[in-house]
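pasting for ref
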Amino acid sequence: MSVQSINSTDAKRHSSTMQHALTDLAKQARKEIDQVDDPQFKAILETTAEVLIGLRKTFEDYSEGREKVWQK
């Protein structure tokens, strides 16, 4: 199987798609917090949301070229 490269324009489009998906999933995790009683599970859901938002920021930084590592 061959791996096809993704050009910068496509990568930014895919990055945007990922940002939206990660944001939606983080929102869902936070919504679930109010629907459970177990404090440990609430903590897991909040941690999950924080990690997902961190990943979204990484995709955003890539798209915007904010970090030196993402600049060409």
